Amino acid sequence: MVMKLSVDDISRYQKDGVVAPITVMQPSVANDLLRRLESAENSFPELIGPEKRNNAHYILACLDEIVHRKEILDAVECLIGPDIVLTNTVLFIKEPNSLHHVTYHQDATYMGLEPQTSLTAWIALTESTRENGCVRMIRGSHRLDIQQHIDTFGEDNILTRGQQIEDVDEESALDIELEPGQMSLHHARTIHGSGPNKTSDRRIGIALQSFAHPSTRQVHGQDYALLVRGSDEHGNFTKGPRPDAEVDLANVGFRDRVNTRLSEILYAGAEKQRGY
User: Fold this and answer.
1) I need a surface site. Which of 59, 75, 82, 226 has the fewest CB within 10 A?
2) Separation CA 89–CA 259 (nearest Å)
């Protein structure tokens, strides 16, 4: 294994529940991946539109390359070991001068994964700054239990249920500002959110959520995952396919089944459900 993270990086993750920035590709590579993503968006809006941004890595080769990128997996391995599954991905796209935002929440709240030791990698394909709505992390909050979340279903809230933790103490908040090709890693219980994009450019990132050890279980029953490194002796997840083309239309049905199941997991116990 190549030690992508330093001893100080690992210590910071253990203390703060987040480590960033981590460079995982050159800006030119990130820009090319962005170009391919936006080309697919333009050509297949019905497949990758605002309500179809979960698990697009099953149909887009550019996102599959990110999911399996060695530099990302080397860093993840430093934190959870050499056997790694990835359960889902989410494209977070904030349009220019958009009110879209993400309220403070913990990923582990609705993911249904036990134990709650998984982590999320957030990779920037464009610049991510405080002005365009970068992620903000509450340092050390991963040491807390799951906090009470309130479902708001806010119109401009990107989260499925508009879930939020009230009365978050922002004194320990850290702005995760990233350049294209950089990423952050955060623990499944780390409280985080992001503000609106106040600039004239799109802000685009992809969350690889969640990376976990194959022994992790889905408490709501069947779930899907990719084995991205090492081996899986547990068989707790149905394994998904990788795309065989730049836009693999043969995998669309599988992606849709995965997203239907994901919605059932994320909306478990909710009073209503949105289209994503």
Assistant:
1) 82
2) 10
According to CATH, the superfamily of the domain at 7-266 is q2cbj1_9rhob like domain (2.60.120.620)
Q: Alpha-carbon dihedral of residues 197, 198, 200, 204, nearest 10 degrees?
A: -20
Which residues of the chain have a pLDDT value below 70? 1-3, 275-276
Report pLDDT for 201. 98
pLDDT at 275: 67
pTM: 0.94
Q: How far apart are CA 97 and CA 242, in angstroms?
A: 35
Look at residue 3 in the predicted model and tell me its pLDDT.
Answer: 58
CA 166 to chain CA mean position, Å:
22
